[in-house]
Design goal:
heterotrimer; A mainly alpha; B alpha/beta; C mainly alpha; A: mainly alpha; two-stranded antiparallel sheet; globular; C: mainly alpha; 14 helices
């Protein structure tokens, strides 16, 4: 085995770039280690579940699921109901998860079916789907909740009498899972139960790859035609992968919001897809390959950058906004880079198959 | 060897109105190896696609006729039907999942599984795979094939030969396998691998599996088959026991009818000047590679290029016209052509009618006017009218319509108007549009590749006549590439046979079919 | 001829059910308008004004669709070139109508350079243009967010007052090129006004585009989009044509945003260009274009329909049910239309 250092580094160029950015910005930002550790732990708890939901569609060859936003919306709707019914604490979280399942399955099936109709451009389609469903979501939450869908408590309704307020407080639910079993290690609060849940999901994903369905998804992801010829229902398998991703994203969103303590009704979900995808890519994943390791590395590096960039930007340029914009730019930039690398690879492969695939 | 495992009766199939299989009868006995031979486009693949329930068949209206297995009529509508009936197929292109190991591929979608509590609730697809058992089954299947393949190796890193063996191992690991279709299984193998392959095919047959063996290597057919079936133009033209037939006879059946009279008389007024000289040409065209080919084309002649499929005859025009990467020297009228730039040939009035009508030859979504005028407009700046002095020039729509109408008349293109979209025409008429496109630029030199592929007999004659007339009227040199030696003999002055990417020989068209056949298989049998 | 019914069904299929729904919806709005007390002349004034602001941005879709690069989700890239042109013109002290001309002149080199590199990038990722374009656009916008703060702009009308540097998010164009085109030859009849100048400018650009598509190169561009291999076999340099189409789209986007600004009266910087691509994309699709076919007629019809819905819904809906659902309807309509185009199996469009 010859160790190819150049290839090793090239394959990991994105995480390495982020390590460099972070190692420059951390000293500049002047944050204490304790603060950073606490923040990172919070971000891991908040985001990991959501990012993990992206893995299954990648396995099934459907690329980055920009439609995970659909699951996030399902989770939000479920939480709006439970908070209206005033079911708080862990029962509230569990009930919200249960409620989110049928909504997620419905949206996931819709999304999967549409993606089957646009094979080869799944990503742009799922991206547009997330906008489209966002319109439907607004229609439901802003106009139908109240007159058509019964909402009991005025407190979460807009003053005009229908529609949900811009912010729904989850104060009585806030961090109920995080705080249930939590220990303090050198001043860093570790929410044990949340970590257990995340680890359980990781184990589930590992287990899932060993199942027949997981195997079928991997096969469909690599070559749909061969899979179809072998008798696998390709379309259904693809829809299933999106449905699973959507349901998991719904759960992830509920965990995310219980940590935050409130729902920004009309904006919580809108950026979540972009940040999760960026984080996954920062962890070294690509459009067609991602692992649990990428998720953890990504969530740490990406959010470390997110925390320190504004402060470091202020120190360097004297303008607080520069850092803000910088981190947005980096988020988009890293997605752009991953997309370009993936498409260029695909294009090159296609060209090679056309032009120089010698038979001997 | 008594009962027929499989019987295909009066099978017919047509694509978009063109009949590609006529009244095919084929039967297979237990443990029998039947060799299926025929030129490319003869209908072998379609027949096998029917048998294996390929989607292409069902999505284009299914097949006509009857298929019986063990005397019972069965319907094969999808590949899962075929699998259930015990029909297995090893494709020419590998149908393997690249990121899976040999084991995973061999047992793909037939994995042994273990139930667990989740799958009891949510259904079978959540059963876990029984890796240990998978490995056992795969190993025993690999052993049966008789080669050493690492069952844990990813297909993507395997040598080609191993991929082929993996495919066969996959088929024979199926318990209910009755019929196995092998589509050119030795084409990509080294000689040693090929002989191993043939041995394992024989041993499979001895276990009672009926095998359809498709190959262009006729000596392999003679070596292992019990019977040989020759298909030409969608008909079974020969079905004979192997000991009653020779390679020569098979070749003759494959490439043409026995009529010798139609060959073109040698023209007396032929020039001996070389118009194009091809030296050491290499073309990187998948499946049709040209390797160090040299050829001289005489001014004003019609030169035919024949040869079996995959030998590289199609690579020649595609390389010279810059559609595939090529190396080597092409001298045209004492000038060197830059063969990787299409414009370099086109601007010297060299035109090309591609074998890939729908992919390269036509703008399917555009009108006939566009199709016929576009090439000439781009290459020769014709069909443009100047406005405001010479400041800007527009498409000259009336001129374009005139030209298109002329060609519609001249070539008898059946269409509703010159505005009709190219995709709405039949294959034969599309081919005429492709010819019109080339004629419109008044070529001095014309490459025509497989001009009669997939079109009906009437259109064939028209297309060939049009080429012949054009050559005589305008003195244009024509190089025609075709799999059908007979049609080459009809209109060409000389015919070159390509084998293994090189010219195997050139004869006058009046030579006997056998001589051309010998050139084709001569190199092929080696 | 054989079966008339079949033909009608085909026609509807060709036109697309979503388009019919949108058309029907808009007609309903117009019929309802007088009953709910909306003033039709004002409505039409709004419609034509908004048409004149947006039409060129929609026109910017045409070249890339023709060359097979798909829907230009990377529109913000061109918009940035326009923003640079506009701000530079003001920075250098040009005022009044001349500032508009200068803005176009300054925007042009940026658009050409951006378009050139953008085109080369897209040539390396054939088949995946749309997704990459979206994110290239986003990256460029967020990169420029930093630049608007850092670039050495000093004009007091543009920078933050208290810091003396960094451009404002919204810059008023009063005294510069505010309404320079709209007011030119403007027709006023009572409540109704018609932005003649801006419409004429759009007509001019459309005419130039129409001309271009009839030249040899324009014909080649259409052929490249229809079947690139055919074009290559006919001696056309595919990459060059595609790059040209991207440059044209980018330049039109730059001009488009300047026209938008002159109508709107403000330059919007920072995250504003973010949301400009989707409305333009859906407008041309509503007009009857598909992922690989588009015409000038598609641009005109699409912009009218799209802007019609944008202007009419708030008034009519508000007066009818006292709910302003226009934003939500706009989101659903525009994204639904794009979704429809992306999920259509055959990409056959109509050439009007």
């Amino acid at each position: 085995m010859k160790f190819d250092l150049k290839k090793f580094l090239a394959d990991r160029s994105v995480p390495i770039m982020f390590i460099i950015i972070c190692s420059v910005c951390i000293p500049l930002s002047g944050f204490s280690t304790g603060y950073l550790l606490n923040e990172i732990v919070t971000r891991i708890v908040r985001n990991t579940f959501l990012i993990l939901s992206l893995l299954i569609p990648i396995m099934a060859g459907m690329g980055l699921n920009f439609g995970m936003t659909l699951g996030a919306m399902a989770g939000e709707i479920a939480l709006i109901f439970t908070s209206d019914w005033q079911i708080w604490g862990i029962p509230g979280v569990v009930l919200a998860m249960i409620l989110s399942i049928p909504i997620s399955i419905l949206l996931g099936t819709l999304c999967g079916t549409l993606l089957n109709k646009s094979k080869g451009r799944e990503m742009i389609t799922s991206y547009i789907i997330s906008f489209f469903i966002n319109g439907i979501y607004q229609l439901v939450v802003l106009y139908m909740m109240g007159p058509i869908i019964p909402i009991i408590h005025e407190a979460i309704k807009l003053p005009r009498g229908y529609g949900i307020r811009n912010t729904v407080s989850l104060l009585n639910l806030r961090q109920s899972i995080d705080n249930l079993i939590s220990i303090n290690v050198f001043g860093v609060k570790i929410p044990v139960l949340s970590f257990v849940i995340i680890i359980l999901l990781c184990l589930f994903i590992v287990w899932f790859t060993k199942t027949k369905l997981g195997q079928d998804m991997r096969a469909v992801g690599q070559n749909m035609e061969v899979a179809r010829a072998a008798g696998i229902n390709v379309e259904r398998t693809r829809v299933l992968s999106i449905v699973m991703s959507t349901v998991l994203a719904g759960f992830g969103m509920i965990l995310y919001l219980q940590n935050m303590g409130n729902i920004a009704t009309y904006s919580s979900h809108s950026q979540i897809g972009m940040f999760c995808i960026a984080a996954l890519l920062v962890g070294g994943a690509s459009v067609d390959k991602a692992s649990i390791g990428n998720v953890f590395l990504g969530v740490i590096l990406f959010h470390l950058m997110f925390i320190v960039a504004p402060k470091a930007g202020t120190v360097i340029t004297g303008d607080s906004m520069i850092g803000e914009y910088f981190r947005v730019f980096i988020s988009y930039g890293v997605i752009t880079l991953a997309l370009v690398m993936y498409e260029a690879k695909k294009h090159k492969k296609k060209k090679m198959a056309e032009g120089s695939d010698d038979e001997k | 060897m008594s009962e027929n495992v499989l019987e295909m009766k009066n099978i017919q199939k047509s694509y978009y109105g063109t009949t590609v299989l006529h009244d095919i009868n084929l039967s297979l006995k237990e443990g029998e190896i039947v060799g299926l031979v025929g030129e490319n486009g003869a209908g072998k693949s379609t027949l096998m696609n029917i048998l294996f329930g390929d989607e292409v068949i069902s999505s284009t209206g299914g097949y006509e006729g009857e298929i019986k297995m063990f005397g019972k009529t069965v319907h094969i509508g999808s590949s899962s039907d075929a699998l259930r009936l015990g029909i297995g197929m090893v494709h020419q292109e590998f149908s393997l999942i690249p990121g899976f190991t040999a084991t995973e591929n061999i047992l793909f979608n037939r994995e042994p599984i273990k139930t667990n509590f989740v799958s009891n609730v949510f259904g079978d697809r959540l059963d876990t795979l029984d890796r240990k058992k998978m490995r056992e089954v795969a190993k025993s299947a690999i052993d049966k094939v008789g080669v050493k393949i690492d069952d844990d190796m990813l297909v993507s890193v395997m040598p080609v030969g191993h991929k082929q063996f993996t495919e066969i191992a996959r088929e024979i690991s199926k318990d209910n396998l009755k019929v196995l279709i092998l589509d050119e299984p030795t084409a990509v193998l080294t000689e040693k691998e090929a002989s191993t392959m043939l041995e394992s095919i024989k041993s499979l047959a001895s276990k009672g599996i009926a095998i359809v063996f498709i190959s262009h290597r006729l000596n392999e057919i003679l070596d292992i088959c019990n019977r040989v079936v020759v298909i030409r133009d969608g008909y079974v033209v020969k079905d004979s026991d192997i000991d009653k037939i020779t390679v020569e006879e098979i070749t003759k059946q494959m490439i043409g009818r026995e009529v010798d009279t139609k060959a073109r008389k040698t023209r007396s007024n032929q020039s001996n000047d070389i118009i194009m000289s091809i030296k050491n040409l290499y073309v990187d065209m998948p499946g049709e590679n040209v390797k160090n080919l040299s050829l001289d084309v005489r001014d004003g002649e019609i030169l035919g290029i024949g040869g079996l499929a995959g030998q590289g005859k199609l690579g020649i025009p595609n390389g010279i016209m810059g559609l595939y990467d090529a190396e080597g020297e092409v001298i045209y009228k004492n000038e060197k052509i830059n063969i990787n730039d299409p414009m370099s040939s086109l601007s010297r009035d060299i035109a090309f009618v591609s074998e890939d009508r729908r992919g390269v030859g036509l703008l399917l979504d555009e009108s006939l006017e566009w199709n016929i005028s576009f090439l000439t407009m781009q290459v020769k700046n014709k069909f443009l009218k100047n406005l405001f002095g010479k400041l800007i020039s527009f498409r000259d729509n009336s001129e374009i319509k005139n030209v298109t109408d002329n060609y519609i008349d001249a070539l008898n293109i059946k269409c509703t108007s010159s505005k009709q979209k190219a995709k709405e025409l039949s294959g034969g008429n599309q081919q005429k549009v492709c010819l019109a496109k080339a004629f419109a630029m008044n070529p001095k030199f014309l490459f025509v590749s497989e001009p009669t592929r997939g079109i009906d007999v009437g259109a064939k004659a028209l297309v060939l006549d049009a080429l012949k007339d054009y050559n005589e009227k305008h003195g244009t040199t024509v190089v025609m590439i075709s799999s059908e030696i007979e049609e080459l003999r009809q209109i060409c002055d000389r015919i070159a046979i390509v084998s293994d990417g090189k010219i195997a020989g050139i004869y006058d068209a009046s030579e006997s079919v056998e001589k051309f056949g010998a050139l084709m298989i001569g190199a092929n049998a080696a | 001829m054989k079966d008339k019914k079949f033909d009608i069904k085909n026609l509807i299929n060709d036109f697309g059910v979503p388009r019919l729904i949108i058309l029907g919806f808009l007609m309903l709005l117009f019929i309802l308008a007088p009953f709910v007390g909306a003033d039709l002349p004002t409505q039409f004034t709004n419609l034509f004004n908004r048409f004149s602001w947006n039409a060129v941005l929609v026109l910017a879709m045409v070249p890339m669709i023709h060359s097979g690069c798909g829907l230009n989700f990377g529109l913000p890239f061109g918009i940035i070139a326009g923003l640079l042109g506009g701000t530079i013109a003001i920075e250098l002290g040009f005022a009044g109508p001349i500032s508009f001309v200068m803005a176009i002149l300054f925007a042009t080199p940026f658009a050409i350079i951006f378009g050139y590199f953008y085109g080369i990038l897209l040539n390396h990722i054939k088949g995946g243009e749309m997704m990459v374009a979206t994110y290239v656009g986003f990256s460029a916008v967020s990169f420029m967010c930093m630049m608007w703060l850092l670039l050495p702009y000093h004009s007091p009308t543009m920078v933050w007052g208290y810091e003396g540097k960094g451009l404002r998010t919204t810059i008023s164009l009063e005294g510069f090129y505010d309404k320079v085109l709209s007011k030119f030859l403007e027709i006023r009849i009572g409540n109704f006004s018609f932005p003649t100048g801006a419409i004429l400018f759009f007509a001019l650009l459309s005419f130039l585009m129409w001309c271009f598509l009839r030249t040899k190169t324009g014909t080649a561009m259409t052929a490249v989009g229809s079947n690139p291999v055919f074009a290559k076999a006919s001696g056309v340099n595919i990459d060059k044509i595609r790059t040209l189409s991207v440059i044209m789209s980018t330049w039109l986007a730059a001009i488009g945003i300047l026209i938008y600004e002159q109508g709107f009266g403000f330059i919007q910087l920072y995250m504003a260009p973010f949301n400009m691509a989707l409305p333009a994309v859906s407008a041309i699709l509503i007009g009857g274009a598909s992922v690989n076919k588009a015409s000038i007629a598609n641009v005109i019809i699409g912009t009218l329909l799209f802007q019609g819905i944008v202007t009419m819904t708030p008034t009519v809906m508000n007066s009818m049910i006292h709910m302003d659902m226009s934003e939500v309807i706009r989101i659903i309509v525009s994204n639904g239309m794009i979704l429809y185009a992306l999920t259509r199996k055959t990409n056959e469009g109509r050439r009007a």
